Amino acid sequence: MKKLSFLVIFTFFFAQSQAQWSLDLNAGFAFQGYNEVRIPNETGTTFDLNKDFDIEGPVVPLSVRLGYTFSEKNHLFLLYAPLNINYAGVAANDIQYQNTLFPEGEFIDAFYKFNSYRLTYRRDLLVNGRWTLGVGFTAKIRDARIRLSSGELTDKKDDLGFVPLLNVFASYDFDRWSAFLEGDGLAGGPGRAFDFTLGARIPVSENFSMKTAYRILEGGADVDEVYNFTLINVITTSLVLKF
């Protein structure tokens, strides 16, 4: 019994000694493709926030990801990725949104929020020479809001919900840098969600590296209350610290 207890304690501390933390700080510059909205789905007016209105100021998505690697091939990630976009413009036609009618010709301020909170577990299934391939699962909490305002008229739709996603990772190690593809995604039923990044990672020191990448966010839902599908392209830069 004592030998078994010693083995369990030794295994635990050995696993901890092999563990490593990482902190990934990311910033980008976004270019929106579309942001189609119809709320309520059955009776609302279809409009595109990106095409029917002007984006106010640059869109700079930020994210913070805390990582924990243990037993070499197992990874846990905790991600916070806020996204907020402001729009403004004149309504080209009457817009029925939620319980409010915004008349044609009225100046409208619009706000789009899609904050993401994610917990990911991924395991590397293949570590062979220069290649690393891994798969896992992500539990995502979305905190979304679309708000329209015009003078004294204002209405909004909030959406807080849970989304299960598949996680994939692939990297190829060159001599002085590595190329990688990683992200979360799932499609089926009334909606879909994709968030993938393709880029390069350049080590600066043993515990510090930089990443530059192209990121695509696409998805939405077509359900009773909400129709909304969005496409956003992002050029990103990251600083990654291991400790």
Main features:
Lipocalin; ten-stranded antiparallel barrel; 2 helices
Description:
The chain is mainly beta and 243 residues long. The chain has a single domain, classed as OMPT-like (Lipocalin, Beta Barrel). Helices cover 8% and strands 71% of the residues. It is built from two helices and 15 strands. A hairpin with a 2-residue loop joins strand 7 and strand 8 (100-102). It is elongated and about 60 Å long. The model is unreliable at 1-15 (pLDDT under 50).
Rg result? 22 Å
CATH topology: Lipocalin
SSE arrangement, N to C: HEEHEEEEEEEEEEEEE
Number of DSSP strand runs: 15
Query: Order of strands across the biggest sheet?
Result: 1-4-5-9-10-11-12-13-14-15
Q: Given the helix and strand composition, which structural class is it?
A: mainly beta
The low-confidence parts are 1-15
Give the number of domains.
1
Q: How far apart, in Å, are the first and last alpha carbons?
A: 36 Å
What is the annotated CATH architecture?
Beta Barrel
CATH class: Mainly Beta
**CATH superfamily placement:** OMPT-like
| Shape estimate | elongated
How many alpha or pi helices? 2
Q: Kindly state the mean pLDDT as a whole number? A: 93
Which bin fits the share of residues in helices?
under 10%
